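We treat protein structure as text, and this decision shapes the records that our systems exchange. The tokens are whole numbers drawn from a learned vocabulary of local backbone shapes. One such record is reproduced below, unchanged from the form in which we store it:
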Amino acid sequence: MLTVGVDLAAEAVRTAVAWVEWSERGARVRDVVVGADDDLIVEAVKGAAKSGIDCPLGWPDLFVSFVSAHRAGDVAVPAGLGRDWRRDLALRVTDRAVHERTGLRPLSVSADRIAHPAMRCAALLARLAGETGTVVARDGGGLVVEVYPAASLKEWGLPYRGYKRTENAEALSRVIDVLLAAAPWLSLGDHEAVCRRSDDAADAVVAALTARAAACGLVTAPAPEQAASAATEGWIAVPTASLDALR
């Protein structure tokens, strides 16, 4: 099995893609590319059994309805424009589910800068649908699954904070040390150096590992009452089993 992880940014320069090959002996990182353009991402996803994308796959349904009503000049103003009303516009169902499970709060795709990568992601999903002839399921049931590397690392008992940006290179290297100790069956090979140097590369590898968990059914899935929202807003797959269970 081949899984792919995509740490998606608004521009190629901060986007990383990792390919992880799985066999009876374990897993091997086949390649890591930092500076991935749209063509590379699309071809990588099409060639994998499952791909994990670190980016929201959709926007909150209530936010979409609000913007549409605002454009038409027909906004129904609730009684009391308080924090709860704004939060409902800012957070998806899956964002709340991740927070309840892990204590981590994903960035709001409707109220934070992650909206820029999400716009790129929406275009990529449309292109994938056009080239494969199949609409990409945002709930994780098809070619791709939405992932959140920090949540995956936390659920696997690994360091999950403070390793971003060049000034935290030592912390990033520590994450790689702990990951390899926890998964001695995982080989980074010639790509270990870039994973220690680039948090984008490291997150792409974690995304590929989470894609494997999703392919094996070892991640959270929407409850029946969450299914409709997950189909339009996206669903973050959080691992439900140990890292060792991926072998």
Q: What stands out?
A: Residues 2-246 form one domain. The radius of gyration is 18 Å. The chain has ten helices and six strands.
